[in-house]
Design goal:
The protein is of the alpha+beta class. It is built from 25 helices and 24 strands.
Length: 651
């Protein structure tokens, strides 16, 4: 059962990855035949286990927009937990009882109700007495089962969370979230309580069950641990939990403390609950707390240090975040020298000035924060110009919070994606320059324009001292930059990020203009319109790009940095001219679809994404596949050929 559930989750992830690659990136990571085979396997498992995950490709959950979230009173009040930072207090609580210890997840508590095997309702904790009904949003949680094998009434509680990695990634994608959400918990709360559940769907919210409230006619042998195992068998992800006694509690607390730094799911402590359900319920509650469970919060390790500077870090949203840089201290086993201050309001609240004596700690043992400013010399020297581009800054008031913005629309920090496209595989193909790395380089002033990427050796020492970089990764990056200096004109043109100019259009235009950089710069709309496949829109944006003096200078300066060997005429010449191909399935002789596509275009052919009456050949090594593209090709009487057939055609 456990193996089948694990396989079902693997299939959901694999099929969703394949669908994303095909629909969003125009590439296939598996053949249609393989996709259909795995899809059928997933459907079979879902029917056998009577379980369907919300993220399964076999279900399409419609989006909904509400005017407001309805309220609902909980069947019984949801009390907070009594808490301590002292392990001895946990020993007292345990006495001679066995218990279950687990992460205290830092997200939004949700109560779920299932009837007849279907999720019927999801309600937030709210104030403990009244919560908000978020059923439509809960259906968007990535790992939540919408259908389960159990058909009685099931009520359970768990935590909706957004992991640290998703928090960092999503925070940049949602506009001004930098100003609103300072940690994964706030982002999760905002995501779960959306009126439009399409937004929830995009934010990778996950659900971890931590308490079973009610399940009729199931014998749990009076054990909380058995309940958790049963929930896992129903398809829920359950919070990580271990059995514990008075004799093992210190060892278990240490285990969790040692593992929190590697845990992507936010946690602000631990929860201890008696394993004996009847015993725990017999104890009842106080006015504020249940008596069967206890929360443990780690005592914050606080260090005193001196603030050396406030570093202002621009983001792609235009927001410029203050970062406190202080004399390094040891915290929770690592050396820490920086902490985000988030905005000017927090700086003013702390009266933060260079030279102040400050106390720092790690929130949830992970995120460095300033606890207190002991000397409070006051805020000064808020920059009037952006540290990246030199453009004017302005202080804005949003949600009663003072924030600093760069007003320059051309600021490099706002155009990280343009630099990422420049370094991407189909452009200059520079490995090791992810968006995150480029963002660091831009913030530190290493990269202000495209050509700076070819001269990163000026900052060798500084780069090697950055987090995540060392001598080996720096050398690998330099080797990749050296390789990128030998390129093709279509790659270079595509790397500029001209609107509507993909790599295929760049190849067509360059070939039509004789691979001559001068003709590229001086091309007219009329000239471009004569090229097959280039319409008015593409011609207009291309000409407008090179009409801008700054853009021309960028192109000309890049030409001085790279070497473009003369392209040899392929054997057989333009023997595919006028032919249109569609490529599908896995490849054996070419490393990827992009390489095969380049070969076709070099010989005058054209590659499209879907089979139509204008398609001349469908290339698929699985010629007898029953995939949708193969079926369409047969309907239209279009030849289906293998790679080997194609290679013979080229000869």
């Amino acid at each position: 059962m456990e193996d089948k559930m694990k396989r079902m989750r693997e299939l959901v992830e694999l099929l969703n990855r394949a669908r994303r690659a095909y629909e969003q990136e125009d590439k296939e990571i598996m053949s249609n035949y393989e996709y259909d085979r795995l899809y059928d396997e997933l459907q079979g498992l879902e029917q056998e286990l009577n379980t369907t995950l919300a993220s399964s490709p076999t279900v399409q959950v419609g989006y909904e927009v509400l005017s407001e979230l309805p309220k609902e009173r909980h069947e019984r009040p949801m009390l907070s937990l009594d808490k301590t930072k002292d392990v001895e207090r946990l020993k007292e609580f345990l006495g001679d009882q066995k218990a279950m210890i687990s992460w205290k997840l830092d997200g939004l508590t949700i109560v779920l109700t299932y009837r007849n095997g279907e999720m019927e309702k999801a309600v937030t904790r709210g104030n403990g007495e009244v919560g908000e009904v978020i059923t439509g949003n809960a259906r968007m949680f990535k790992n939540l089962p919408l259908r389960i094998p159990y058909t009685g009434e099931l009520v359970l509680r768990g935590e909706a969370v957004i992991g640290y990695k998703d928090f960092e990634r999503i925070n940049e994608e949602i506009g001004d979230a930098d100003a609103k959400y300072k940690n994964p918990r706030n982002l999760c709360s905002g995501s779960v309580r959306q009126l439009n559940n399409e937004i929830t769907a995009k934010r990778n919210v996950r659900f971890y069950a931590f308490t079973l409230v009610r399940a009729e006619n199931v014998d749990f042998h009076n054990s909380r641990s058995v309940q958790m195992d049963w929930l896992a068998g129903q398809g829920f992800d359950v919070v990580e939990h271990h059995p514990v006694t008075r004799d093992t509690i210190e060892e278990e607390v240490k285990w969790f403390a040692d593992h929190i730094s590697g845990n992507d799911v936010p946690s602000d402590g631990l929860v201890l609950v008696y394993d004996d359900i009847a015993y725990g319920e017999s104890l009842g509650t106080t006015a504020k707390f249940p008596r069967d469970s206890f929360a443990f919060k780690w005592a914050d390790e606080i260090r005193e240090t001196t603030l050396l500077e406030i570093e202002w870090s621009p983001s792609r949203t235009g927001l410029i975040n203050p970062v406190a840089v202080f004399e390094p201290v040891e915290l929770e086993g690592t050396t820490v020298s920086r902490a985000s201050v988030h905005n000017i309001s927090i700086m003013e609240e702390l009266e933060l000035g260079v030279g102040d004596r400050i106390q720092v700690y790690k929130a949830n043992m992970i995120i460095p924060q300033i606890a207190e400013n002991l000397t409070r010399s006051g805020v000064k020297d808020i920059p009037e110009v952006c540290p990246v581009c030199g453009g004017a800054t302005r202080i804005a008031m949003e949600n009663e919070t003072k924030t600093l913005y760069c007003t320059n629309p051309r600021c490099q920090a706002k155009h990280v994606k343009a630099f990422a496209l420049f370094a991407s595989r189909d452009a200059m193909n520079i490995e090791g320059l992810s968006e995150a790395t480029l963002e660091k380089f831009i913030m530190h002033g290493f990269v202000k324009k495209f050509t700076d990427i070819f001269h990163l050796d000026r900052y060798a020492d500084e780069i090697q001292s950055l987090d995540g970089f060392g001598e080996k990764s720096y050398q690998n990056l330099q080797e990749s930059i050296r390789n990128a200096r030998v390129t093709t004109l279509p790659r270079l043109v595509y790397s500029l990020g001209i609107p509507n100019i993909g790599i295929a259009n760049a190849r067509m235009i360059c070939q039509a203009l004789g691979n001559d950089p001068k003709r590229i710069e001086e091309a007219t709309e009329e000239e471009l319109n004569e090229i097959s496949g280039v319409g008015d829109v593409i011609a207009k944006t291309f000409v407008e790009y090179f009409a801008d003096e700054e853009n021309r200078e960028t192109f000309e300066s890049l030409l001085k940095e790279v070497e473009i060997p003369e392209e040899e005429e392929p054997e057989g010449g333009k023997n595919l001219e006028g032919l249109t191909f569609v490529i599908t399935g896995s490849l054996e002789h070419y490393s990827n679809r992009s390489e095969l596509k380049g070969e076709i275009e070099k010989r005058g052919g054209k590659v499209t994404g879907s089979v139509t009456s204008k398609t001349d050949y469908l290339i698929n090594n699985d010629v007898n596949s029953t995939s949708s593209k193969n079926r369409k090709a047969r309907e239209l009487d279009i030849p289906i050929i293998s790679e080997e057939d194609f290679m013979k055609m080229m000869e």
